[in-house]
Amino acid sequence: MADTTIPLEATATVPGTAATRRPGRSPATRRPRSRATAGSGRLAALLVSPTLLVLTIVVLYPTLMALDESLYGPKGLDPRTGFISNTEPFVGLKNYTDIFTQAGDRFWNAFWNTTFFTVVTVSLETVIGVAMALIMHKAFRGRGLVRASILVPWAIPTAISGLLWKWIFNADGIANVLLGHQVLWTADGFSAKVAVVIADVWKTAPFIGLLVLAGLQVVPKEVYEAARLDGASALQQFWRITLPLVKPALLVAVLFRCLDALRMFDLPYILIGAQKGSVETLSMLAQNEASNVRFGPASAYAVLLFLYVFLIALAFVRLLGADLVGGVGGARKSRPRTAREVTA
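The structure corresponding to this sequence follows.
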C-alpha cells in the first residue's frame, strides 16, 4: 500500500493549509484580548452610565408606570358593599379594547389629526427652513440682524406663541383685517386646522433652518467655485451639491420635528381650545381623560401614543439610518461628485 503521508515541507505550499493561511504561527495559537481593549470598554461603560441612568428615570420608569396604570379602571361602586371603592379595579386590557370599540370614533379622529399635523407642518417647515438656511448662509450686510430675527420665533415659548396667534386669529384680529372678511379661525372646523398649521410652522421652521445652516457651514467654498467654472447653474448647484451635502443634518432635523409634532399638545390646546374635534390630538385626548380622573384610559392613550412615536422613529432610523450619519455603515458608499459631473 502506497505511503500517503505528506511531508512537512510540502504543507507550506498546499493551498488551504494552516501554514499558508498564517505562516509562522500555530493554528492553535490565539491572540489574547489586550488589556487596553478591556480598559477602554469599562471606560466607555462608565461614561455612558449617567446617560443611561437619566434615560431610565426620565423615559423607562414613567413608561412602565403608565403601562401598569393602563391595566386598571376608574374607581366606582363596590358591588359587594355598595360604597365607592378606594382602590382602582384591575381590568386587564379592557381600556385598550374600549379605545377601539366604545371610544373608537374619538380615538381615530385624534389619531388622524395628529398624523395630519405631523405630515403637513413638517413638510412646510422643511421647505421654509431650508430657504431660511440659504438666506442666513449668504454673505451680505445685516446678516446678523436677519439671523436673529429668523430665530426669534423659535426662542418664544410655545404657550406665548399660542396666545399671540390667538389674538391674531380673533374675529377682529389682524388676520381677518388682511383678508377683508370674517373667518372663525378659533372655532371648530377646518379653519382651526389651518390656524394651528400656520402657528406651528411659524414657530418651528427656524429650528430646521438652524440645523441646515450648521450643515452649510462645513461645505467647502471650493466646490461651488469649481461648479461655477464648469457652468453649473444656481439650481444645479443646490440640487447636486448643497442638498446632498446637508442631507444628514436635514434628516436629523426632520426626525426631531416629526417626533415633536406627534406629541403636539400645547399649541392647539391654547390656540383653539380643549375638546375641539377638528384639532384634538392624541396628547390632548390623554390629558382630557386624566383631567376627568380616568387615569386608566388616559394611560392607555399615552401608551398607544408612545408606541406610535416609537414605531415612527424606528422606521425612520431603519430606512434612513445610513444617511443620518453621512453614509457610514451603509452597504454602499458613494464617492463625492466632481464639479464636471454636477454639470452633466
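The chain is about 65% helix and 0% strand.
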